[in-house]
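Exercise (ungraded).
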Amino acid sequence: MRNFPAFTAATIAAIALASPLAAAQRNGAIAQDFKLTDVNGKTVQLSQFRGKTVVLEWHNPGCPFVAKHYNSGNMQATQTAALQQGAVWLTINSGAKGKQGHMTGVEAKALIAEQKIRSTHYLFDTRGVVGKAYGAKTTPHMYIIDGSGTLVYQGGIDDKPTANVADIKTARNHVLAALKEIKAGDRVSVAQARPYGCSVKYAS
Amino acid sequence: MTSDFRLFSIMLMFAALFLAPAAQAQNRLGNAELNVPATLVAESQQVKAGESVTLAFVMEPKPTWHGYWENPGDAGIGMSFDWTLPAGVTAGTAKFQVPDRLLISGIMNYIYKGDYAVLVTLSLSDAVRPGPLPISVKSEWLSCTDEICVPEQDELSITLQVVGKDASVVPDKKFDGFRAALPRPLGSEGSFAVDGDLFRLSIPLPADIEIDQPYFFILEDGVVDYAAPQTFNRDGDRLILETGARGDGFESISGILKIGDHNGFLVTASKGEVAMTGLPLTGESATNSSEAGTSLLFVALGGAILGGLLLNLMPCVFPILSLKAISLAKAGGNEAVVRRDALAYTAGVVLVATALGAVLLGLRASGAAVGWAFQLQDPRIIFVLLALVTAIGLNLAGLFELPNINFGNKLTRKDGAAGSFWTGALAAFVATPCTGPFMAAALGATIVLPPIAALVIFAGLGVGLALPFLLIAFVPAIRSRLPKPGPWLDSFRKIMAIPMFLTGIGLIWLLGRQIGTDALGLSLVFLLTVSLILWWFGGGQMKDLSRGALTSAAMVAAIVGGIIALPGQEAMKNQKLAHASGATLPSEPFSETRLSELRASGQPVFAYFTADWCITCKANEAAAIQRSETAEAFKAADVAVLMGDWTRPDPVISRFLEKHGRAGVPLYLYYAPGKEPVILPQILTVATLTELVGKAV
């Protein structure tokens, strides 16, 4: 409740920055800037990370496909690899109040501790403004923005659209591959892939 | 306290997720726990070496749950199959039924809400030995409600029996239903283009195929923006779709053009130029935005009321109305009676118009292709209507007085209100065939609108029809301007019999077209009987004798007897056939028994399978089949022609096509006496056909 004014302000800021609601962001274009509030009530703005690679991850703890990648440790390992090369990882929850996966700051903090989530910030997008501006459809849905603010990857975490943990081993992790290519100064070879998972539970 | 509880529930949720594998193992034992349980069934338990058998995954989502189509749309996942098959058995690709769509906060899902079946055909090599044939498959699919998703899987198995060549195999009739819901392949290919943000697709579809609310489900991901609205144009024999594009990079695409519940066409298209030409079809705007829906409803309602108003001038309604109006005028001072009468009349009109609308919507929902005035498609109803119109005509002509339709000064009688109600009901029933061009747009809208709104339109039609009457009743100024009743009224009434008889003639013509001259003769005899009964009744009235009960009984007997004597479905079919035999190349309807009969008798047979929506079929018919050269050559060689019409799904034809390795029409077969059938190319020429016969002779 203490965070409420800050939260409201951030939401308004997000609307101001993200509107008009563009359809999905395009690869190769400057990614839409946004401001959201994290679990501690702190306002985080995308453009404050200029110069660094930023990974966006859409999250919903109740989704079995998200569970596949967290229960197996795959998502945390990807987060660790990103942080090690100096990237920023923003986990965004666009679940609306009353919908599956919506959490309060306290609940999210407990979840982060419990699952050892390594993201730089866990952000709330309760009104779905940022999610819709990015065209985020599923959880997980991944985006990578390079140091110049350009969107270089959007799509699924990997190429095995199943809920089966055993498939992680044989799948191509699109995010790890893209991060490696960015680090080496190469073009991202797979810049777009089909996202898979549950639908983002937006406020309708 | 609350947050502790929430924390606890989150932990519980994760505990449940960790335990998920155990739960899935349980699912395998009894699939009753699945939200979209699957059952594997075979079309026949017996199968022969060298042949194939179709299996169905029968999916039965629990209430509020749904499963996904091959391409799930923005989110979700399709179905996967991991087969374990004995040597010599191969599984084909899965065939999915025409899906539904579900848009939740801008995320498009391609789903199945109700029960559905996924079909897979297994082919057996010649080497498979007789005996049991164990089949098992591990399948994964995603089950969702509007709120949550659960990945489900099951290991399904079935044991078939390989039987000898001579054993009989009885196919499961359920599969006819499963197949009927599969999309039918269009005979010809379309083309598509991606131009910046726009995706366009041109689908070959004959101009006379009725489509209500088309939607294109694309199979390939990354080409179109699933949630973007789809708009359709119709340009002659092409249907053009325009929607938002997502990306490029495909040389060919495929998908399902849905034109109704469980009714769709399999479309393939290759890259090309597509321009948005032709006239727009009312797309999905009406269902997608409630605002547009509301304005459409008002426009359509206005159209319906105006249409109903115009109906009053139609020959079939005008006589009833004009006399009713004058009788009202005659009531003069008694305001209350006039109003009560007008309201009763309005109630009759609105009730019948709405009821007819409801029946129409019901029939449509059950999949029948019916239009407004559908009641005139049934000859028995035309027949009754004919009797009714003639009786009214005779009544107007003065042959007898009908107690219920109040002319003269019986207005104050007790049955006035009931009489008015029935006059209204009758007016609405007879008026429907007159709706014609005025109503086309408004009635078209009822197809797009939700059922309740559609019923409002039908009611609006009734209100329009009753409107002049209401005006006369409630606005004394109008009433006072109506001509005063007098001796001229009697002549006017007799003249009004003429349009009534004209309507009768129209109905007789319609009846003749539907069932031929036999029915025509019958209906004329029937009309004479009706006239005689009524004449006798009228004679009684003049002498002040009550013959009402006897007359009613005689009329009922005449109508029931007439309907029984009326040739039914059989005759209608024959009439159609008579038309077919009037074609350049006459044909008989296809059936497997007729085919084997003809083959047994040593006659060469040309069998062709066509559908009204298949452009290639129509082109072939015009260019090669229905040509005098072909007809002469076939006649000379004594070739029997069988025609299978697949316009509506027909399980017999579907199975036959499948047996010949075709998923759809066209299929052209030539059976030379005593030889294996030859499958002709999909594009025919006169030469192909005539040479065929030349060789055979």
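Further reading is listed at the end of the chapter. For now, observe: Chain B touches chain A at residues 3, 6-7, 10-11, 13-14, 17-18, 20, 74-77, 80, 104-107, 109, 140, 142, 144, 147-151, 221-222, 225, 244, 246-247 (CB under 8 Å). The first helix of chain B runs from residue 2 to 18.
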